[in-house]
Amino acid sequence: MAQAILIAAQAGRALAEAARRAGLRPYVADLFGDSDTLALSEAYRSLPGRFGSPIAADATLAAIDALADAAGSPMGIVLGSGFEDAPGLVAHIAENHRLIGADAGAIAALKDPFTFAALCARLGVPYPPIATSAPPDPSVWLLKRVGGSGGSHIRSATRGPAPEGHYFQVRVPGRPYALNFLADGRTIQVLACTEQWCAPSPIRPYRYGGALATGAAEVPLLPDALLSAVTEAVAKIAAATGLRGLASADFLADESGWWLTEINPRPGATLDILDRRSTPLLAAHIEASLGTMPTLGAQPADAAAAQICYAEREHAPVPDFFWPDHVRDRPRPGTVVLRDGPLCTVLALGADRQAALDSLNTRTARLRAALSAKKTHPEEAL
């Protein structure tokens, strides 16, 4: 029988799918309990809370323990998003379960903004200045939550000091990219440089939208010299923190240069578009976490893209809907998705970058049109 693996995240479907591709049996705890997550999971436990908010420690520990009991002898646990601001919780999890990926020390070093800023300064890595005191000119600063993920926590700065658990960061120019990589505690292996975009809402102007990986034969997204500089900087940080497993480094770049904004010490939102090589990425994540850099196989020939489809209106309840094959994170019929909440994820492939983007946008538009024709609120049936 295939080995069991525990997964805990805000949204665990992508990790569960990656586990199945790696020949493992996933036992999953997350916030959503989407229909495809349940179908992929050997067993499932729901976590309380709201996407983008700090994770509930006691409930998470109880869910992980229950899943471990159900699994019998799982090989370990993989943590997804939601643990960036909780290295103490990660350390507690590691006391009872084998942690596969970044340990509590690496997470603390990478996700505490002032510790990370000091590390970048010591290593000569360009990182936008940060502060907690009132900025003299708020228009050139952003307000971020410590350990936040997904961009929804980022706001324009206002006058006055940063609220508790938040900090200011100087705005810098450039388009958003991510260097996706594997780390073994000493070195890194680059998977891809992906471009990213926001899906702004009136109160969440920097909310994560989606990402794209170009095909193997396409012109690289960035000049070789710039990408080499980013790779060298990330390698230094990974070695300094002993980072292990799948991770990504978010940065902004334009003609004038680049700025590192954060490192996500976990499998990220690009898992869906990158897990297409001969070596399954979760298997590579496990091997790298054990200190051995795996062989990944060739980069896929075609481009791939994914984006979150946010609800344009409240779905109360979600209808019994035939979701296309290219849709993931499918909410269960009868559940509620609030307006502007994450509804599902749309995937697309293409011969090149533009073909993948065109297919992605077409599929998203058709999905929205089909959903809008469904009655998703009791009053609409009257």
TrEMBL record:
InterPro entries cross-referenced by the UniProt entry: ATP-grasp, ATP-grasp_PylC-type, UCP016817_carboligase
Coiled coil region boundaries: none
All residue ranges annotated as the ATP-grasp domain in the record: 222-290
Keywords: ATP-binding, Ligase, Nucleotide-binding
Domain of life of the native organism: Bacteria
GO molecular function: ATP binding; ligase activity; metal ion binding
Alphabetical list of SUPFAM superfamilies matching this protein: Glutathione synthetase ATP-binding domain-like
Name this polypeptide is given: Predicted ATP-dependent carboligase, ATP-grasp superfamily
